[in-house]
Structure formats: C-alpha cells, structure tokens
Write a structure and sequence with these properties.
globular; single chain; Beta-lactamase; about 15% strand; 3-stranded antiparallel beta sheet; alpha+beta
C-alpha cells in the first residue's frame, strides 16, 4: 500500500479570516456539496490568476510557442494512455517562454465529465510543507528550537529524549512509519471513511522498534510529521488546522486551500481512483477520509493556490532568511536525484514536494535556475505495472520535465 510515498494573488483579508474561521469548524463528516463558492465565480477568479495576472515569480500571461504546446499536449496524452491516468491538470509557467495550463481526460469515469483547471484536489504529502512551515515560524519566534528533543513536547515517543524536531522534519528520526503497520492498513481499508486521532495513528508505529539511531539515516515516515503537528498544537494551544490556516494559508493569500482531516472535498472536484483496497480492486476514493494523514496529508487545494505556493515555499516569504536557509539545507536520501530538507525536497533541482492519498497524486515544484513552476494533479494513484515506485503523477512530471527542462528531469 502506498500511503507512504518518497517524496499571489491579492485577496480581501476579511474573506481570508472568514475562510479560516469556517475551516476551523469543519466537522469530521462529509461537508455539504454546496459548501464551496459558486462555480462561475471560481472559474472567473481562476482564469485571472492562471493567466499570470499576479504570478509574481514566473508568470507572463503568454502562451508557449505552438510547437512546444503541441509537444506538451502529446506528452501528456501519451503518458495518460501509458499510465492509465483518467484525468490530469497540468500547470507550467516558464518565464520568457510562456505558460501551459490545461486539463485533460475525465473527472468522473462513470459520467465522462471532463477535468477542469479549477478543480479542487487532495494534495497528500504536499501538506507536509505547510505543517513544517508552521513549525519553522515558531522557531523564528523562539517558541521552539529545532534541536529540542520531542520528549519535551510529546510523551511516550520511543527514544524521544534523543530524537529532535530537526530529525523529525528532515525524516531522520528512525521512527517506524505507522502507515506501514499491517494493523493500520487493515483498520483503515476496512473503514476508509473512519476518523483517527493523531495519537491513534502514532500508536501503530510505536508498536515497532525504531529502525536506526536518530540522525544516522533517512527514512520517509509519516510518524515524523504527525509528531510535529502535536508540537504545534501544544505550543500554540490551538488546533493544527486553525493555526496553519491563520498563520500559513491566510498570509500566503491562498483562498482555495484548507487543512481538513475529513472526507471534505468541495466541488468542483474530480473523482479519485485507487487500488489501495483490501482485495486490490480499483475503487472510487472520492469520499474517503484523510484523517489517517492529518499533519502529513490532509489538505485540499487547487491549481492556482499550488502555483503560488511553490514559489513562496522556495522563497520562504513567511520565514527569516536564516531559518529558510536551514530548511533548504538538503541532505542526500540515497535515491538518485532526491535530497530532503526540512519538510521539503529537492527533485534534481526542482524544489517542493509530491503527494499521494488514495485516489489522488500531486506534484508542486519550483525550479530556481529557470524560475519555472510545475504543478501536476491526477485523479489516480494506481501504480504503473503494479510497481509501487511507479506513481502516475510522478511519471507524468518526469515526462513533462524531459521536454521543458531536460537538464533537470523530475526523478
């Protein structure tokens, strides 16, 4: 099961405050279908943003050359056929060359409804970039320190006196990933709409001995970011979702993003298809809960917000220069072309994160050398040729970067 994967627009502040307030009270149940803004207004706003009206870092409102557009169109369609991707949204912004913003395929295999560029999606582990940003803001405020042991904030963590917040953020704690525990997999897949608490999630991982000494190796583990979420809640005396909304999402002017460990996915939305089921058959995971991911993977966003966030994450606009430099001090992971910092990855020069939850995969990255941004959203996580390493979203990103940035191909 692949629950673990390798890794600005001006807005009215009053509206953002209202969005945060609403996000803070989203119940642990499916939100009403009408909870999102009217689709006409969404489409109009998306058109302005995606046209590069305020891309700031890398938008220039122009289309790419016809030849490059045709090549990218062929690349996407070929990849979708090869990797059995029902629907995809692709956003590419290349300064001086133009932009490529397109939706392909279907959002619903039953009705044939097409994918749209303004659709909301589950962004999986891209959530980690928001959680760790919130933690690093607390570092800048002097309320926590990266070399604090986790035992100072959360009791009962195996070897918690030696595991630091830094070890957790850069995936070098040695803690066993709770998503790899067979009991967790059975409990989740038996009832994929159920709600987990963060401590319940951690208990699955704490059943196992730590895999190595803190700081001595790299292992991508969702247990790490759940613990950081608990640190944020303990220090701020508020829920993680409320704190991230008010201190990360709102200051970044992201008005279509929300942290919600529920079944909530507002319309317009694509159906998501997964083979992460008890019998391995493909299921529609649109209404599944993301409480199993919490601080790791429970966010919802869309193309325009991910476009803005990719650059903001690299630039560190919410952090001090010193803290951002620590964040981007990437360490090799042992996988070719992949290094990891503090809640952010370096994919052969592309800075950002990829994400996966059942039914959805996302890539949100920025290439500093070219000032380029790439966002990929697909509504499947069924691996190519049943190889868990062959995530369709990542494979599409690889195909696209082979065309636009052949010196920096997404690994």
């Amino acid at each position: 099961m692949k629950l673990v994967q390798a890794p600005r627009r001006a807005r009215l502040r009053g509206l953002l405050a209202a969005v945060c307030a609403a996000a803070a009270v989203v119940p642990l149940a499916t939100a009403p279908a009408g909870a999102s803004a009217p689709e006409g207004a969404i489409a109009a706003r998306a058109a302005l943003a995606l046209a590069g009206a305020d891309a700031g870092d890398n938008g220039d409102g122009h289309e790419l050359s016809p030849a490059l557009e045709r090549q990218l169109d062929r690349t996407v369609r070929t990849a979708m056929r090869t990797y059995a991707i029902p629907g995809a949204v692709v956003g590419i912004w290349l300064p001086g060359r133009g932009r490529f913003v397109r939706a392909f395929g279907v959002a619903d295999k039953k009705t044939g409804a097409p994918m749209r560029t303004d659709m909301n999606t589950r962004i999986g582990s891209v959530t980690k970039t928001f959680t760790v940003t919130a933690l690093l803001e607390l570092v800048d405020q002097g309320r926590v320190h990266l070399d604090d042991p986790i035992s100072r904030y959360v009791a009962g963590v195996p070897d918690g006196g030696r595991i630091t917040l830094r070890d957790l953020a850069d995936m070098r704690s040695g803690l066993y990933p709770y998503t790899a525990d067979n009991g967790f997999l059975k409990d989740f897949l038996s009832h994929p709409k159920r709600s987990f608490t963060p401590k319940q999630l951690l208990s699955y991982g704490f059943r196992h001995p730590n895999l190595f000494a803190p700081g001595s190796a790299y292992l991508y583990s969702n247990s790490n970011t759940v613990l950081l979420g608990l640190v944020i809640e303990k220090v701020t005396h508020t829920s993680l979702s409320d704190y991230v909304c008010r201190h990360v999402i709102a200051p970044s002017d992201l008005d279509r993003s929300v942290m919600t460990p529920t079944t909530y996915l507002p319309r317009p939305r694509p159906h998501g298809y997964t083979a992460q089921t008890l019998n391995g058959t493909v299921a529609d995971a649109t209404g599944w809960s993301t409480s199993w991911g919490w601080a790791d993977a429970d966010m919802v966003s869309d193309l325009q917000d991910l476009h803005a966030w990719a650059y903001d994450l690299y630039r560190g606009r919410l952090l001090s220069r010193h803290t951002q430099a620590e964040r981007l001090a990437f360490i090799p992971t042992g996988s070719p072309g992949l290094a990891y910092g503090l809640g952010v990855a370096d994919f052969n020069g592309w800075i950002g994160h990829n994400g996966e939850v059942p039914g959805y995969e996302t890539v949100d990255v920025y290439l500093p050398s070219e000032r380029a941004t790439l966002v990929v959203m697909v509504n499947t996580d069924v691996p190519y040729r049943n190889n868990p390493a062959d995530a369709p979203g990542d494979l599409l990103a690889t195909a696209l970067t082979s065309v636009i940035t052949p010196k920096n191909v997404f690994p």
